[in-house]
Specification:
The structure is a homodimer of 598-residue chains. Chain A is globular, with a radius of gyration of 24 Å. In chain A, strands 3, 4, 5, 6, 7, 10, 11 and 12 form an 8-stranded mixed β-sheet that branches. In chain A, strands 1-2 form a two-stranded antiparallel ribbon. In chain A, a hairpin with a 5-residue loop joins strand 1 and strand 2. Chain A is built from 18 helices and 12 strands. Chain A is of the alpha+beta class and 598 residues long. The first copy, chain A, is 54% helix and 11% strand. The N and C termini of chain A lie far apart (49 Å). The interface between A and B is large, with 102 and 101 residues.
């Protein structure tokens, strides 16, 4: 079986580039060492290959269904795999030891999770959401809530979800209508329906912990009136086991193009199905304070956005590796100028256009993996920085990079999967090979946890302008530092640095030009184009970082890194030029449209 | 139900732009009039909406299967729809009256077919292949072959296929191993297997006419040893009805990501399944002369390539129309600067980024439709030109444009479907809506009838160099004529003309630069990038043509045309700049790769 990720590349990124081992000199990670990091990565790769990859196609072909009694039926392989995952303690990853965690660096636990995402994106969703959910409650919840919900999630006895969207409110959370009414005993009663809830129902665990956005009557308007509640499928019983059923009801499953092994649900809260005494609402427990729910939820959302970037990257990565393997094994045609039909055909990889498609994939997936791990290291910096200023800077930079870490892999690692199909030719279009499923699975990532359009508005409308542009300035200083190091380095690095500096300077300039007229509609008219331009430039920066880390090292692996960087700087970064031209012109094409023209 | 195509747009393209009615002044089309053209288009739209669209999702969800007896089972809706199509006489379209055809202009019959391709790409494949097959035999076959096979195909009693690929030979037809051995009676016996044969088996018709590439022992080597044979599923009987079963056996069905309603088959010729007396080979009838098979097959292939462009365009078009409808009906969020959550949400189409996605789709699908119809008019010119020189010029220009007419819609109308999903948000990713299927169906078009890479090699390696560049010069003169007319026109047209001239001049220059060193491997190292650059430029030309045709006309339809052209010239054509830069640098990145670096 082909490996689903490259351990060699992860070692390069984690140890040779990001020097993750240096984190062990900090108190938070002092119990760890390269050995414990390696052990987690080895274990993850092993379980992912042995227990996650084998049922990936099967769970695509046999998607979950609703039984007549309203419960979910799914192939048993999913539970078997997750039982092994849970038994290995892998849900405990980055959590504090004080609540049962392993206190691993996020950088390492994200890399470990990537094996599962590459092997089986759908099955990996269950622990992925659980970790993000537990992380939120452990940050904002009470001790009781941590004991009741976080500990069982870290143990893998409960899984978690995030319940934001409703049928009429997806991107626009201001319009949610789910209500929460406070009772005399301090609990809340939740009524409403939630749409698109991944992992919203199943029998993989004893219990499911829903984190639900709802409005308390009399609260603020729009997003300022949103509160956050823990709404478990089963209430906590007196003996530590699960108690009575809460009134959360599966009312439908969505049937998706891909990602089919993850149940995606329509849930009714408080419709009376599970409360024989009548529909008083599902019981919910407030997280933090009323009306501040969206800010808490963004803690989980931001984590999930980087996680979505990792899923997209991992799907791109496994498709890349499989198309490399195919291109080396499959023969077809002859070299140009060697057309003698009696000569044996050559491997696909001998053809220039196939090489282009492999280089493109390599540059996308390894560039995206670098960005994901870089962002993860910022999380570790937040959690363990030696000064408050360092921690605040890490938060600021992570804020700016999050929309890119979410959107860029979603767009370009999907394109990697598209190219992986193309390398396979007709075979790639069939379900006998794996790549068409990756392409279908990966298409989701441009949509959930904030669409591409939402990420563009977030980056240009919020992240680069907040604190008087402090985030953009910080990113600028980081990129400038890389360019400076590169200019002192080898030829490749120095050449790339000149190109990157030119493009990045234009990005910085155009950012202020866009906001100059003080007209948000005009500034944001092409925010998605801006997102794409910044994204490509940031990935070029990630490639320059990798070239520097590979300097004075010889061998195929390092030559491959240098060549993929050459590809990216030659074929990809120049695409940013016309995008910046468009932005600089403050073009009004998208504004000056009459809907009747369509 | 949403229309699957825009009749208003077809009327504009056919009558206001291409002036198809003027063809009726030519002898070949003298029996026709705008009325007969309209009647065919109306009839096609009606049957497509009533009988093709309704089972599109069903045939995706219920793909054909093999029965234990080796026959194909498929939903009955496909046959019902095709029976109505056949009864309406629509297979007769462009064929000569002398053999039972309607002698319609190809431009009109392609536009008519597009309704079926948009409504149900899979079901439309059966007549699509049949028409191309009948066209080949009517051109190169004997009178007997025309009587035996073409007439029943035009009547819809038989359907046809093209059998080129084998499991080991897809893009490289030189490596086919299917053999044809001549018998004393002049017939041939065919043995071998063919892969990826669309419509290769079914019970939709009395008989199936396979056009099979095979090698006659002792023939030339490589592609020069390929001959073409008619191999029917049932031999012609003495009474005009079908006779004995020929030894053509379905040995497997391919399971695809999309296009599922079209059976895609592995066929064995002459494996003895249907010849109790032993495996002497399937009976085949030579078309034309031995060893010239590939040149005949390219007659069908070129037609099929333009047809693939139309399928891709039609799938893009229907997705565009459905996402426009959705964007007008679905409300979400508020305008920028009008964030009062108490105000009612606005339609999606009010958001700039949604408009960008709709404009992009519009510019892709209407641009592609224009190119497809322009190429079809060149076919009519071939068939009816007033001078041999005009006919030869039409052939030459069509030769150059064919790889673009195939590849550009396959790439960009797939991107249109990608954007159609994005406009729908989470709903677009579900099978409850139609757009995800279009995206899956459309992904095939980058692969079959010559992959994107093959089209690039064809364009840069053959089409622009043949006859000392005569094809490119002819295209150049056509584009120059449009630019000249545009410069005499309105502001939009004149501005676009300046931009197009600049880009096109660079394309022409870079074409000769690439071939200057006389190193084919270097010239063709980025032939796919060349294909994309020329493609975008040709579509810009098509948009400039449309702007000229819309000049001095007012109303939403024409304003929409002008705005889509503005979008294409502002957002799309500039993408060609970096591509031409790359080509001009004669970059060696794809050549200087060591496979061990991946």
């Amino acid at each position: 079986m082909t490996d689903v990720l490259s351990r060699r590349d992860l070692d390069f990124l984690l140890y040779e580039w990001l020097d993750v081992v240096s984190l062990t000199s900090r108190e938070r990670f002092a119990e760890h060492s390269k050995n414990t990091f390696d052990a987690v990565l080895d274990l993850s790769a092993d379980i992912a290959h042995k227990h996650f990859a084998p049922h990936n196609k099967k769970s695509d072909a046999t998607e979950p269904t609703m039984r007549p009694d309203g419960s979910v039926e799914m192939i048993s392989d999913i539970k078997s795999a997750l039982d092994i995952y849970r038994a290995a303690g892998l849900l405990a990853g980055q959590f504090d030891e004080s609540i049962g965690g392993m206190q691993l660096p996020t950088t390492v636990s994200r890399a470990a999770m990537a094996w599962f995402q590459a092997a089986n994106a759908s099955t990996s969703s269950y622990p992925f959401l659980t970790i993000a959910n537990a992380n939120l409650i452990s940050t904002y919840g009470t001790e009781q809530q941590i004991d009741d919900y976080v500990r069982p999630m870290i143990e893998g006895r409960y899984f978690g979800t995030m319940c934001l969207s409703e049928t009429q409110a997806g991107s626009s959370l201001a319009d949610i209508t789910t209500r929460a009414v406070k009772q005399d005993d301090g609990q809340y009663r939740i009524t409403g329906t939630k749409m698109w809830i991944s992992a919203g129902d199943h029998e993989l665990t004893e219990n499911i912990v829903h984190l639900v956005l709802a409005k308390v009557p009399g609260g603020g308007s729009g997003v300022n009136g949103i509160s956050l509640f823990i709404v478990p499928k089963f209430l906590a019983g007196p003996d530590g086991n699960v108690g009575a059923r809460n009134d959360v009801t599966l009312t439908g499953l969505n049937h998706k193009m891909g990602f089919r092994g993850t149940t995606n649900t329509l849930l009714a809260f408080g419709d009376g199905t599970h409360t024989p005494e009548g529909s008083a609402g599902a019981i919910g427990f407030l997280v933090g304070e009323e009306n501040r729910g969206l800010s808490y939820m963004f803690h989980m959302m931001n984590e999930a956005r980087i996680g979505v970037g990792f899923v997209a990257t991992s799907l791109g990565y496994v498709g890349y590796l499989k198309s490399v393997e195919y291109a080396k094994a499959r023969t077809q045609g002859r070299r140009l100028g060697a057309k003698d039909p009696a000569s044996p055909p050559v491997a696909l990889i001998e053809h220039a256009d196939v090489r282009r498609m492999l280089l493109a994939q390599k540059s996308y997936v390894e560039g995206a993996m670098a960005l994901g791990l870089y962002c993860s290291l910022l999380v570790d910096e937040q959690d363990s920085a030696v000064s408050d200023e360092d921690a605040a800077n890490a938060t600021l930079l992570l804020d700016v990079l999050t929309p890119i870490a979410k959107s860029w892999p979603s767009q370009w690692c999907l394109e990697a999967n598209n190219l992986a199909i193309q390398v396979h030719g007709g075979y790639g279009y069939t379900r006998d090979y794996d790549v068409e499923q990756y392409y279908r699975d990966n298409r989701l990532n441009l949509i959930h946890e904030g669409t591409q359009g939402i990420q563009g508005l977030d980056l240009l409308g919020r992240k680069v302008t907040m604190q008087n542009g402090a985030g953009l300035k910080l990113l600028d200083s980081k990129i400038a530092a890389t360019i400076e190091r590169a200019q002192a380095g080898g030829t490749d690095a120095a050449l790339h640095a000149v190109q990157l500096e030119r493009v990045w300077t234009r990005i910085v300039d155009v950012t202020s030009q866009l906001w100059e007229p003080g007209d948000p509609a005009l500034a944001l008219a092409n925010s998605t184009v801006y997102l794409e331009a910044v994204g490509h430039t940031v990935i070029a920066w990630m490639w320059l970082e990798q070239v520097i880390a590979a300097e004075r090292k010889s061998g195929d692996f390092y030559d491959g890194k240098r060549h993929a960087a050459r590809y990216f700087f030659t074929y990809e970064l120049p695409k940013v030029g016309p995008q910046v031209d468009l932005l600089a012109s403050r073009d009004r094409t998208t504004l000056d449209v009459n809907p009747a023209w369509f």
